[in-house]
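FAQ: What does a multi-protein file look like?

Like this. Sequence, then tokens, then the next protein.
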Amino acid sequence: MKVVIQNSLLTLVLFLFVTSCSTSQHARSSDNAPPNQLKAAMAEIDITPPAGHRMAGYYDERLATGTHDPLKAKAIVLQQGSEKIALVFCDLVGLSLNITTNARAAASKITGIPVSHIVIAATHSHTGPLFDDVRRFYFHKAAVEKYGKDPQEKIYYPKFLEERLTKVIAQANNNLTPAELNAGVATQEGIPYNRRYYMKNGRVAFNPGQLNTNIVSPAGPVDHDVGILEVTNLKKNKTIGGLTVFAMHADTIGGTEWSADYPFFIQQTLRKSFGPNYISAFGAGTCGDLNQINVNVKEPVKGFEVAESLGNRIGKTVLNAQKDLQPITQPTLSVKGITLQLPLQDVSAEDLEAAQKNIYRLGDDKLDFYAKVRAVKALDLTTRGTKTWPMEVQVFRLDADTAIACLPAEIFVEFGLAIKKQSPFKKTIVISICNDRPCYIPTLKAFKEGSYETVNSRLKPGTGETLVETAVKLLKELKE
């Protein structure tokens, strides 16, 4: 009887041991994804300053009266094996190299993502805050001299933004889960428009106005591509968010309320299909010379209704393209990048003297618009205190057919088109205003023609052509 009991007990112990081993092996196999399994996550965070803070986008001192829709920073973190990247998009007119350098370094320290694998881009919303800018410096200085402090700056926005950017990258990184990416490029009919035009007087004009009978023809091409990246959480079997890239200035609202401009309405359209928690990131394509204004008709071009109409149109294009998006079934994440030291333009003594007089007249309607532009430019270049400026080019491979190229500044559309044409990848998405915004990068042709964008450029002619050459070289290296 005793032997039977002992044998039974031994059998039970063996059964429990085997069952336990089997269960733990199953748990390990389900928790540990295959080495090449793609993981992804998205996160967003509020980056809206308080009311009263100065707004960016124009030359006069514009103070925010409230919030139409909160400004956000949205992060996409992707991981495959030891390779990890972070793509961040902010509802701002631009970002300074100072802020992105600090935020990328801090995020890298927390997450382990290499600094070179992090890109922080701006959507180019003209209804975001003014910071790290010559205009802000002089407005701030005048306020301190008058009041003893600056009543418009309830927070120091650069520090606030750095902390938020670091946090949103960390949040996405902490939520990585097995995922699937779907990518594609759709076509947006009707918009955008090139805002530079040849005129009957032989010159090129910037935004010459609707129904202007002196217009001959556009001075450059447009880009109708809509780059799309969708992120699906495989555990939840749900699309959690995505990236839309389109080349058109986010300057359709104006006014004094904080707003992400038309990308906000892209989000609202997509949320109607994907749910209220869908995170809609937006990247500005090469839109330095593109906007929403059709000069051939007389119609409203500013305001929330215009922004809503544009956002809805682009959002519907993204939804209609869902059936054509290609799943990235064999991801091969990889990153290449390089920082070039490119020459800044020179500032003459005469330009600097005029700038120091005119900088306090930016709100004066009697001062010529181009005098304001030249004043800000001359003081900006002088403040930089160097003959060259670091310009970083990054390229990200998602799979054998799909890549993303990221460039700093407001890039002319010709450069984005050239990169896509020469890229060895079937689907190449080009994003501008990444990591820094030293104003416009026009083509050599545009520099000869003149007008606003060339006056408001900071780097010497030829910079854009160098950036294209570099991006294409890096893309070809990724393809090998």
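And here is the next protein:
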Amino acid sequence: MESKPPGTRPRYDLQLPPPPPFLRRGPFCDGAFRSPLHEPRTAVVIGRWLGAALIVCFLTGLTSHLLQNPPHWLAGLLPSRPANGYRVTQGLHVVSGIAAIPLAGAKLWTVYPRLFEWPPARSVLHALERLSIAVLVGATLLELFTGLLNTLQWYVWPFPFRQTHFWLGWLAIGGLLVHIAVKAPLIARHWRRRRAAPVTGRRAFLTSVTAAVGVVTLTTAGQAVPWLRGLDLLAPRRPDLGPQGLPVNRTAAQAGTTDVPADWRLQVEGPEPYRLTLAELSRLPQHDVVLPIACVEGWSASARWTGVRVADLLARAGAPAGSAVRVTSLDAGPYGVMVMPAQYVDDPLTLLALRVNGEVLAPDHGFPARIIAPDRPGVLQTKWVARIEVI
């Protein structure tokens, strides 16, 4: 009987026979993958670029989710400044997500021969590792695919986008962290250039991937980055196109608000409630602010808004400083009611806007009145306002 050295741990490798003859063709043939670029150093270089893009995308997406749907304990802590905060974070979210698409393709091409290894699992731990990689790849690809179609506002799936996108993000980032932990020794071994063996074509391949990411990023980032607007060739939205020079996600026709009632009044509910006609609103002290509309699809555009400070409307209703409000729109859609925490209400940049860029609001931009506030997602800049209620 063969003796084992003291302290030797038993192995649990799965002893599988070689692949059957009918599988020894195509990708299962010996030498099926001849490119020298299917090697660890190339995978590590692309992997760290992809990992950085996914982490930025996850953190900025989490920021967007919390700004749109803050838990009760967080709502009062969200800052209203910097005024362009959401524009920056959501722009980074979409830019990093789009950049991750060619990176994910390059990474998968580099490592995909490992999908055809035999045996498929050498041990229980190896099987669990491959399962975690399947979760990582599946969640990442679905996250990028649905996110890209969201920038086009093209929803071809039966499930709710926002909730699914949120939880897929957690699956993807969790799978990424597990993958990094499992592959840490391999990553460390191939992290530095001087330790890597020279491979023909590696530099050209990495240069091509870098160029592809650069082109895709530069030709889409202009929808959020003003100084790149001249290169905005592939982005789904031009931020300077639309009624009054601003894009529109939800039109008055879609919201059913094309015909505002002739007897429209703004109802302000507080300790001393009151109602105002549009003419009466226009005679109140008017203020100008320059703020962006920044939407979850990644586009943003600045404009000069003119209107009445929401804090002044509440003060007239006898509401104390530090009051939150519930804003109700004529639109009965999913964002027809919006809650605005006190820090936004008290900010002097927050207006009930009546004009944009010197013109009366077009119906698609919320005539007769809309909310404009700093550092808030576009879906919370409520249009066609009918009621403001202190809560």
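Q: Is there any per-entry metadata?
A: Some entries carry free-text notes. For the entry above: The chain has eleven helices and ten strands.
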